[in-house]
Each structure stands twice: as C-alpha cells, then as structure tokens.
Amino acid sequence: SDTVFDVDAEPAPEEIEDAYARHANFRVIRRPSESLAYHLDGARLGEGTASVIVGSMPLDRMLGKAREHKVSLTELVAAMLIDEIQRIQQADWRHRRRPIRVSIPVNMRRHYPSATVRNFSLFANPGIEPAFGTYTFKETIDQVHHFMRFNMTAKNLNALMCANVRPEQSALLRITPLPLKTLAMRFAYYRSGESRYTTVLSNLGEVSMPEEMGRHIDRLDFMLGPSHQNPIVCAMLGSNGRLLGTFTSTIRDTALQRGFFRQIVNWGIPVEIESNGDPSTLP
After folding, report:
1. pTM, whole model, 2 decimals?
2. How is domain 37-153+178-278 classified at the CATH fold level?
3. C-alpha–C-alpha distance, residues 229 and 195, integer Å
C-alpha cells in the first residue's frame, strides 16, 4: 500500500522536503490580527496529570447531522464546542465579552500537492463575538461555516504561509544565537499564538488501514495535548463506522465535555463514554 512506508527503504527526497518553502509564492504576506480570546479555567489536576474522556458514536449518524445543517462534520463539531463554551462563559464574570475561537488545523496537502511527511498545516480560528450578544446555535454554525469557506482557500492560505516562512529567510535571524531565538519564539507564541483561541479541534477524518493491517486493529485512538492557556482540547477520528471524540483536559471541571456529549444524545444519537477519571464527573 502507498499509505504504509517500508522501514527498510531509503526515504524519498520528497518525503522530507520543506513544503512551506516550496509552495510559498510571496505575492502577498498576510497575518490576521486577532484580539485576546476567552480561555477556560478551573481547579487544575495534579502535575503531569490529564483527564481523558472519549465518546464513541455512529459515524454515519453524525455525518447525517452535519448534512442536515449543510456543513462539514468539522464545522458542526466546532460550532458545538463554541456553543457550549458560550454557555460556560455567560456564567463566568471574568471575561464575558471576549471572543470564543476554536483553532482548527488545516491540512495544506489538500491545496498544494506534497508527499512530505513533515508537518504541512496551517490553522483556522473561527469563532463568535459575545460582545455583540448571545448567538443561537444556527448563528454559530453559520459563523463557522462561512469563515472556513471564505478564508480556507489556496490563495488566502498562501498569504498566511508566506507570513510564516518569511522570518526563516531573515539573515539577522540566521546569525542570532539559538537561546535568543528560542526566547523570542516563546514570547511571540505566547503573545500571538494560544492567547488568540479558546480551544483546539483536530479532526483526522475517517482513517482506513490496508486489509493486511486492519484485521489486527480493533480500534484507533487520537488525542491532543492540552496546554496551560488552553486546558481542554478535542480530537476527532473516524474508524470502522465509529466516530471517536476525545477530550484531553488538565482541569477538574467537565462542563464542556458533558454539554457536548449531551447535545449529541439529545439529537437521538447514542454515545458510549470512556474515561480515565472519576466516574462521577463523566457526561
């Protein structure tokens, strides 16, 4: 199968190329300006500890719900997360008016052909502006859907890609000592990275394996690592007719997870829940 690499074979040059550098055309350099986003918070779990809650549901039923709303599954799930976070924010006196954004990795291989096995993705941050008022679920879905369709085009993505590649070509940065570059990168990421979105949603889509491997696999799991600023993140994966939604968290409160899975159950879609945490906190 061309989806499985031979560990004894020599890597092809295209497998290790820097696809960003190859495809950035530098016609336009654009980095969107975003304000500070709302962040979830709560009592933290112990050092080095994370809560994992996995919900398994029929993939076809969730795809049907997405088609009902005329959006992709990723857009539907992003809207669900935003909608539930909006409810949490309205009970939070600290930052009720800050925007709620979900950061979604975009696979650049869909827009620019590349066989690289190195990272080749950018991020979209759709969301809502609670300062404008309370959004209905339909309004939230529309916000996410139109943001993704308007911004995630090859031309817009190339402008963003150029903004990321340009610093690598700076002669000054190349001669700057590594410790200073590391500090600068951390500061820049803190100021313009995680502070600009509320949570992360990554959807790998439906994953299939070659028959020779598939018969030995009962299930595939996919999870993301939370951070200090964004303590709850969500990963989605379709496999063997099931959709698995995995929340990884470093805080004790599970209101987001409970609300998310209860919404699916309210649609009449059965969800099986697993967790490594306290059963009393499960959805």
Report:
1. 0.89
2. Chloramphenicol Acetyltransferase (3.30.559)
3. 7
